[in-house]
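User: Hi! Is it possible to get a structure for several chains at once, not just one? Here's what I have:
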Amino acid sequence: MIVLKVNGETRRAEVDPETPLLWVLRDALELTGTKFGCGRGLCGACTVLVDGEAVRSCVTPANALAGRSVTTIEALAGSPEHQALIQAWVDNQVAQCGYCQPGQIMTAAGLLGRKPNPTDGEIVAEMAGNLCRCGTYNRICRAVRSAADARRG
Amino acid sequence: MDLSRRDFIRLSLAVGAGLLIEVRSAAEPPDGAYAPNAWIRIGVDGVVTIILAKSEMGQGVMTAMAMLVAEELECDWSSIRVEAAPVDSVYIDPKIGTQSTGASWSVSSSWRPLREAGAEARELLIGAAARLWGEAPSACSASGGFVTHAASGRRAPFGELSRLAAAAPPSPRAAVELKPPERFTLIGKPLGRLDQRLAATGAKTFGIDVRVPGSLVAVVARCPMYYGALDRFDASRALKLRGVRGVFEIASGVAVVADDYWSALKAREALTIEWKEPRRRPPYLDSGAMSEGLDRIGREAGKTLRSSGDVSRAEASAAKIVEAVYDLPYLAHATAEPMNCTARIGPDGCDVWVPTQNQTTAQKTAAAVSGLPLAKVRVHTTFLGCGLGRRTRADFVAEAVEIAMKASRPVKLIWTREDDFKHGFFRPATRHRLRGALDSRGRLSAWTHLASVPTASPAYALGSASFGYEIPHVKVVHAGMNFGAPTGAWRSTGYSNNVFASESFMDEVAHAAGADPLRFRLDLLRRAPRQRAVLETAALRARWGERLSSGRGRGLASFDFGDGAVAVVVEASVSPDGAIRAERITAAADCGAVVNPGIVEAQLEGAIAMGLSSALMERITLKDARVVESNYHDYPILRADRMPPVEIHLVASKAEPSGIGEAGVPGVAPALANAVFAAGGGRVRALPMRPA
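Assistant: Yes, the chains can be modeled jointly so their relative placement is included. Here is the combined structure:
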């Protein structure tokens, strides 16, 4: 049994304690917005926020997260604080297949949390950790830029 | 997400946009909604449900198909819902011959039928209103989800009329008149995609997100080498692990089923398996032997695709002969979403929930494996996390159905990323021998292209023989023979191989003639106005001919794609140590009438990224009949830091739609190679290049 704080709630899961956070979220907690891409922390599809920081959930054992707070795309999409980011994704018509986009958005949220006004170079460098086979990179970076600008008002 | 109701399965629920993609079993009554034909249902609440026979894999087809129907139906765009079609002969793509999505054909093959379906439904609603009011149908019109009788000012919403139309006696299907383009209100507009907000909120659900009550998760250990087989396995350790429910031998290897993915994966690692090498296997299942193999089939298996004039005579009188050989590697699809399929076998038949590009094959495969008749197999198409051609296959459907039968439980099969690379159906590695003859005035008088391809699939002959260049003497030969490594459709199929060779070579010939590569091509395109127009547009927008700093160069490529045409200009830099970088890409395309220019632009942008990725860094290597690469560390794909600015120009056309989903891919590699040459980086004749 592991105990986790996910999206503001304390959640319990009957799983092998070494199960990566990704599979606790997807299989035990049925939060399927976080995606499986590579299982090795290489593609970023599984990115979630842990205490506000973008983390690869596929290589993060769930039992390493005691006392820490996990945020997934489901909560982020509903939080007023992140509406500018979600809206920027819609306005820029970023997604094609959309599979990697929750991870992209979580990475962007992590960046903007740490650095509310990143340079374009910082945006590209940060987003380069997340793969998108549909090739939406330019729109991703534009969306992060416009979300940052919108939040500054 | 629980799929709890037996026959009505809601796969994804929109927030805001009001979009619903639902998957129903074919047998389900349509909730009292009116179904004027196989493509449309209209609810009493005015909600218009469009049945999507195409697979939404990122290309925006869900939105484009809905626009085609809605344009003629005259419903309110915000009343649109989209639902995945069941397998039915009515949904067979007339151009492909199966219910499937590929070859960039969705818009062109649906362009007429879906508008006709919309128009037919509109006329039936108008007929219902006319009967209600005792007026002539010709005095009534439809717009914005209402039928109006202008003379009396009466109007009725579609939802209300749907009941009357449903109750009306069936009338013979009349020919409908389609709007002329100048009256289009939706087609040609960059409407936002119906699934955009779903994707941005994590609510877009893919095959891998399906959960059937009582289901287990399966992973499979497959033979690591081609033509090998399972010898024996010991599952005793695996079966002792937590959450493990069974280990079964299946046709493709050994399957583990468990309560969750992680338990299944750990159990797979705990299996002891011995695989048998075959006594013999075909040669050339090793990248080191490819050249020899491809040269051999080039000599032995050639089929002439195009022949005009007399190449030998032209060469005999040529002032200059240019020759070059180009090599391309095997490529993986690397779809974002790994292969997966959920299967359930019950007394009422078999259900599969699957991100598939080919419902016909998925159904046939599930029927063959389960022994059930086709009518007892229901395919529920989910959203696809990329298709790229990989999901035209049904190997993962066969596995899931077999495992569900052996486990006597519903099963969700998930492939690991390693499984995906090791057991892909690759774009074939190809070799191209080209020869060109220049006459004494520097004109291209003869062109020979011999393509050697390790598959017999005709899809890889595409793009070598259809070019619009006017060359007096031409011979194009395609030699295709199966080498035994699994190959398959990969976004744009033969175009991406053949166009790399032919457009690189066109550049070499132009330079050999001492001509500007743009001028040289334009001179050969006098009778190919569409290809000429895109080339001129791309060159102009890319400032072709303007000076660049040292170490930089521009290269271009132009080619026909279906009935349309594409041109790409790449500006590249080459560092002193030879590292290559695409600095900006400009593309122009003519794909006929455009349904949604926003989506077309996005498709070109994305396909350009994929073309660039493959040109710079992608390669599948075979060694001893095994795939060497396993994950993104040794099969890198393009990341944001190598993505250049991309500018897209659509050349207006009155022609019917010709397809765009793949068209951005083929031009990038040759345009980049030509830019590298212009930048002083030498001639690239083998892919992948060396990225910065």
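The longest helix of chain B spans residues 106-133. Residues 1-29 of chain B have pLDDT under 50 and may be disordered.

User: Great, thank you!
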